[in-house]
Amino acid sequence: SDETGKRVEGKRWWEWVWQHEKASYYAIEKGRGYAVVKKHFGEDYGGVLIHDCWSAHNNTVAKAGHQQCLAHIQRDLTFLVEAHKSRWAYDLSHFLRSAQKARTHIWSEGFDYEIRQKIIQDYQEKFLLFLVKTTRQKDVLRLQKRVIKHQSAILHFMTSPTIPFHNNGAERAIRMSKVKQKI
Residue 29: beta bridge partners? Predict the structure, then answer.
């Protein structure tokens, strides 16, 4: 899922999209809160919801769990490395890239189930080490708190070969209307 600002009769509204490989659902609403999710998406979704960290998406019922968009997290980590020389951000960025590569490998055809489960468990345990580090840098601390709060939605993609680790599909689905708005 994703949302973006949209001009309607000169006023700021929000265009929402819930996207799946087979369909996209669009809505344009004045609000950006959970009421829009409830109205258009409902409260009984049985799948995994992949999204950025917007609170309306975080609060959406997704019975199979949530996956935070790692592309958004990576952008924030890159900023922290460049602006604050954060070792924590650098290490987490490399760890997440490694997890993405590992997921591809562990779900390849013929890969042993028990070894796959062990690797997923190892990644989850290593991830916990990133949740206990502290810093005095406000920007780094802000991201650390967000990662801690949503920790179950960071590596969820490793548990299945079909869960994307990004919401790029929704971003692509909403992109053309954004491009047309600028014309």
Answer: 14
pLDDT in tens, 36-91: 999 999 999 999 999 999 999 999 999 999 999 999 999 999 999 999 999 999 99
Please report, for residues 3, 4, 28, 36, 59, the alpha-carbon distance to residue 31 in angstroms, rounded to integers and kept in the order given. Answer: 11, 11, 9, 7, 15
Average pLDDT over residues 150-156: 98
* 99, 155 Cβ separation under 8 angstroms: yes
Cα separation, 1 vs 122, whole angstroms: 29
Packing angle between helix 70-84 and helix 138-149, nearest 10 degrees? 160
- Sign of the alpha-carbon dihedral angle for 52, 57, 59, 63: negative
Comparing 179 with 113, the larger pLDDT belongs to 113
